[in-house]
């Protein structure tokens, strides 16, 4: 009995000691001051401390990053908190969600004096004044070249091929309702086949035994033949920048992207309305458009810089070429039709 | 007069956890629901409730209910034999097995989804069963996650249930089945009901697992709320579904309450050493079922371990050695080892919060009310602390952002938010592990102590603590495991410079490249092993604390 009590006391004491360390260690960056810039972003954010340190050296502002969910969750979070924003600046709203952020009045006007991403500007005028393009990625169908060589089948090259009986049961894609590359692929098919034709195309895909998963990692890592597991589908929806990750012993990638099946996702940055530190927010948007940040993008976040003069890593220049003529749609069209497309899509595929 | 003060003191104990619940649960959820019900400043519940008439909503609700119910029943059918074998029979390695059973509980859902699909996909070892993307796969994964809840919750009660009643019944000629039905199960009923309600709540709000394994054929109320909130910003519909969730959960808790109050009574107890017995021939069927359950738990785990050891077509530990780095092509901001340290710190904080609040709640709700009103109040209190398990994490997460946004309560950027959110998830488990045991203490013991002049604190220490000490440790280990494995709320709130293990595992598995995939699996195995180590240590503490020597 007495042992019990003593042990209880010992346990509680040691727990308190442990917690003491824990709490003191985790409360390092609380509090607000004018030297901080808070960046709201999605959970793919990954920028080296070195680059962020350069920003602090140049401007005196320190960066705090707040990630949350994907581009959709990020945009909705900003809309919900617009009366009392969680951050000063946002990075990661893409062209499929840009209209919602702009229409809801989440952002204020700002354009960097030196804006290298002119050709990626949003097509809508208000959006163009508020959003600064930072990077883009081409969502494209990828294929396992080794599988096609081994089975002596000519690899597919186009949207139509994917619905061809020769490629029956070989294609896996994440769903547009639960995955942002999935939505990009749906938009690509809408752009390619038009308002009246895309649903038929999807019906043909379904008839050709397309596999639909909920997320990218599921499609690529489980079902794709070159993913982490032992999948059985050699055609997968991924990015134009994926092939360099599959370079094998011979120094050649085992996969390639079909550049005629791409949709361009552009990611923007913008200054939030009601930002506690608007000065710092503007400075960070300008920094993201600057050369150093632009050149750090491919290695850290696997996206292409919008600055055409930014240097690309060697493997990218060779194996991760972006599409010449990717599909795109005005962001206001995507915003206006997204719900209706997804409903039609669900009807076709279920 | 003195009695009244006693009850007032108990009520005061409840004030702290109640305040936490209001602040970190009621307020955020109410805030989100209100956003959906008030459209452009005017109250318009009809617009939101119209969602409930859609046929899709009915399908979703039906699937949510039946899948959760099926998973609960299967978890109980498999979990109770496992509990019996691990807590009542002297099987070799039972302590290790008790700790191993908890492994699935901390594995990130995205990894479990991949592990299950690797097994079940047409190209996988179990591909021939044709279960990929089926409802069976979803229910199996739910059972995989929740078996631990049954084993731990019921185990902490069963392991010191006095066997002499069962022996007496057997001596009087009762068959083993009769003994089970008339003696053992009634005595365990409070724990079983507690475990079943927790499992049901976990399953009915399962999210990642339904998305990954269900493909798009199946959705639950939880996945609908997620899509409506994060993709469509349809707050009206999301609010309606959140209310529907609350409604279902309340109904369930009421049913559980009715079942429990009919069966709750003090039980005789004995030390753990005297209740275990040697394995007999008659135990073979039970051992077989328990073995089957353990295989179900082990298969995906083995898939993970094998995957983590595959390096470039051969075998090796390269992925484990890579955990000290930031991954291939700088996939991460911090090495996985740093993330493990972060997870550990957050888990200690979260466990402490959950244990303090959960302990207080358990003490309060296990008191016997003196009047009808008091009893009702206690039952209500008991139920409200279960609610966080039954409500959408997305609603709660967004609710945090829109309600805790003004000083002095601007907690949105506080580093404490992650442990607080995790503690809210762990709290019901803590209460459900401790309260049934506290309730099973003969109240006359407390009355005797009090009449001999012991203060309430002293009664707690001398009557309750010795009995509840072991469940308390079990609950601590459980809360720790919940915190280590929590992903939904954490990914929403954690900061990138201080990610936890599940967050970095998610990042690794979301990148192409075999090395990142291998590291994700290796990190999951490490996370699971750390949990097992913590649980096993807790087990040790428990043995010593009973003063068995």
Structure, described:
By secondary structure, chain A is an alpha/beta fold. Chain A folds into 2 domains: 184 residues, Periplasmic binding protein-like II (D-Maltodextrin-Binding Protein, domain 2); 152 residues, 3-Layer(aba) Sandwich (D-Maltodextrin-Binding Protein, domain 2), CATH 3.40.190.10. In chain A, α8 packs across α13. The radius of gyration of chain A is 23 Å and the shape is globular. The relative contact order of chain A is 0.18. The N terminus of chain A is likely disordered. In chain B, strands 1-2 form a two-stranded antiparallel ribbon. Chain B has a two-stranded antiparallel ribbon with strand order 3-4. In chain B, α3 packs across α9, α6 packs across α14 and α22 packs antiparallel against α25. The longest helix of chain B has 36 residues. The C terminus of chain B is likely disordered. The interface between A and B is large, with 77 and 74 residues.
Keywords:
heterodimer; A: 350 residues; alpha/beta; D-Maltodextrin-Binding Protein, domain 2; ten-stranded mixed beta sheet; 43% helix; disordered N terminus; B: 549 residues; mainly alpha; two-stranded antiparallel ribbon; 25 helices
Brief characterization of the structure:
Chain A is an alpha/beta fold and 350 residues long. Chain A is 43% helix and 19% strand.
Question: How far is the N terminus from the C terminus of chain B?
Answer: 45 Å
Task: Report the mean per-residue pLDDT of chain B as an integer.
Answer: 83
CATH H-level homologous superfamily name of the largest domain in chain A: Periplasmic binding protein-like II
Q: What is the tally of beta strands of chain A?
A: 10
Tell me the fraction of residues in β-strands of chain B, as a range.
Answer: under 5%
Backbone shape of chain A:
globular
Biggest sheet architecture of chain A:
10 strands, mixed
| Strand elements of chain B, count | 4
Number of helices of chain B: 25
What is the general shape of chain B?
globular
Q: Report the oligomer.
A: heterodimer
């Amino acid at each position: 009995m007495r042992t019990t009590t003593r042990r209880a006391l010992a346990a509680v004491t040691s727990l308190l000691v442990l917690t003491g360390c824990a709490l003191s260690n985790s409360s390092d960056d609380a509090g607000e001051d004018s030297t901080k810039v808070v960046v709201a972003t999605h959970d793919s954010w990954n920028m080296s401390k070195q680059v962020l340190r350069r920003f602090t050296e140049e401007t005196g502002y320190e960066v705090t990053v707040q990630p949350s969910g994907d581009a959709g969750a990020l945009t909705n979070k900003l809309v919900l908190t617009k009366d009392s924003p969680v951050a000063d600046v946002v990075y990661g709203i893409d062209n499929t969600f840009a209209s919602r952020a702009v229409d809801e009045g989440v952002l204020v006007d700002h354009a960097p004096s030196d804006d290298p991403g002119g050709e990626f500007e949003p097509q809508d005028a208000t959006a163009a004044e508020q959003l600064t393009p930072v990077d883009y990625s081409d969502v494209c169908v990828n294929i396992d070249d080794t599988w096609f060589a081994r089975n002596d089948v000519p690899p597919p090259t186009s949207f139509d091929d994917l619905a061809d009986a020769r490629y029956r049961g070989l294609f896996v894609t994440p769903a547009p309702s639960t995955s942002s590359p999935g939505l990009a692929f749906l938009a690509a098919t809408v752009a390619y086949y038009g308002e009246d034709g895309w649903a038929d195309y999807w019906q043909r895909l379904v008839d050709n035994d397309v596999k639909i998963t909920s997320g990218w990692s599921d499609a690529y890592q489980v079902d794709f033949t070159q993913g982490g597991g032992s999948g059985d589908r050699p055609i997968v929806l991924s990015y134009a920048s994926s092939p360099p990750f599959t370079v094998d012993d011979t120094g050649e990638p085992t996969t390639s992207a079909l550049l005629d099946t791409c949709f361009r996702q552009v990611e923007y940055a913008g200054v939030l309305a009601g930002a506690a530190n608007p000065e710092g927010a503007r400075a960070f948007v300008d920094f993201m458009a600057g050369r150093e940040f632009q050149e750090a993008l491919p290695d850290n976040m696997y996206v292409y810089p919008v600055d055409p003069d930014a240097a690309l890593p060697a493997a990218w220049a060779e194996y991760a070429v972006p599409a010449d003529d990717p599909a795109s749609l005005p962001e206001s069209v995507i915003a206006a039709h997204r719900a209706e497309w997804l409903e039609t899509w669900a009807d076709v595929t279920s | 007069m003195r009695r009244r003060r006693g009850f007032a003191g108990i009520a005061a104990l409840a004030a702290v956890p109640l305040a936490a619940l209001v602040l970190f649960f009621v307020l955020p959820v109410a805030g989100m629901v209100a956003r959906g019900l008030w459209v452009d400043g005017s109250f318009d519940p009809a617009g939101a409730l119209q969602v409930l008439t859609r046929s899709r909503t009915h399908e979703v609700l039906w699937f949510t209910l039946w899948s959760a119910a099926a998973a609960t029943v299967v978890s109980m059918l498999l979990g109770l034999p496992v509990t019996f074998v691990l807590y009542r029979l002297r099987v070799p390695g039972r302590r290790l097995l008790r700790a191993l059973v908890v492994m699935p509980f901390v594995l990130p859902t995205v990894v479990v989804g991949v592990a299950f699909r690797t097994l079940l996909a047409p190209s996988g070892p179990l591909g021939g069963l044709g279960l990929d993307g089926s409802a069976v796969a979803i229910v199996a994964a739910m059972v995989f996650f929740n078996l631990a809840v049954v084993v731990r919750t019921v185990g902490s009660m069963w392991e010191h249930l006095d066997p002499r009643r069962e022996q007496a019944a057997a001596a009087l000629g009762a068959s083993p089945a009769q003994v089970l039905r008339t003696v053992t199960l009634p005595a365990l009923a409070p724990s079983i009901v507690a475990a079943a309600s927790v499992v049901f709540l976990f399953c009915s709000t399962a999210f990642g697992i339904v998305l990954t394994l269900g493909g798009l054929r199946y959705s639950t109320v939880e996945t609908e709320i997620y899509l409506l909130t994060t993709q469509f910003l349809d707050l009206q519909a999301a609010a309606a579904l959140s209310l529907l969730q609350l409604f279902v959960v309340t109904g369930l808790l009421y049913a559980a309450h009715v079942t429990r109050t009919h069966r709750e009574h003090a039980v005789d107890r004995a030390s753990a050493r005297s209740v275990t017995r040697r394995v007999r021939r008659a135990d073979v069927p039970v051992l077989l079922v328990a073995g089957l359950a353990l295989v179900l738990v082990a298969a995906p785990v083995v898939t993970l371990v094998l995957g983590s050891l595959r390096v470039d077509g051969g075998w090796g530990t390269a992925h484990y050695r890579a955990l000290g780095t930031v991954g291939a092509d700088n996939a991460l901001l911090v090495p996985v080892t740093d993330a493990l340290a972060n997870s550990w710190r957050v888990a200690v904080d979260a466990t402490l919060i959950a244990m303090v609040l959960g302990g207080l709640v358990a003490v309060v709700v296990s008191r016997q009310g003196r009047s009808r009103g008091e009893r009702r109040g206690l039952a209500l209190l008991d139920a409200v602390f279960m609610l966080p398990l039954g409500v959408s994490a997305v609603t709660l997460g967004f609710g945090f952002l829109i309600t805790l946004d003004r000083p002095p309560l601007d907690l949105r950027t506080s580093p404490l938010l992650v442990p607080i959110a995790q503690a809210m998830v762990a709290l019901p488990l803590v209460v459900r592990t401790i309260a049934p045991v506290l309730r099973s203490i003969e109240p006359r013991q407390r009355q005797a102590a009090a009449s001999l002049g012991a203060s309430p604190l002293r009664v707690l220490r001398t009557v309750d603590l010795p009995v509840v000490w072991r469940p308390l440790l079990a609950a601590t280990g459980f809360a720790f495991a919940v915190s280590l494995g929590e992903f939904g709320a954490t990914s929403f709130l954690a900061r990138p410079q201080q990610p936890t293990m599940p967050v970095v595992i998610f990042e690794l598995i979301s990148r192409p490249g075999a090395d990142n995939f291998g590291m994700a699996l290796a990190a999951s195995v490490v996370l699971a092993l750390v949990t097992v180590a913590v649980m096993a240590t807790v087990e040790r503490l428990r043995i010593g604390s009973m003063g068995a020597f």
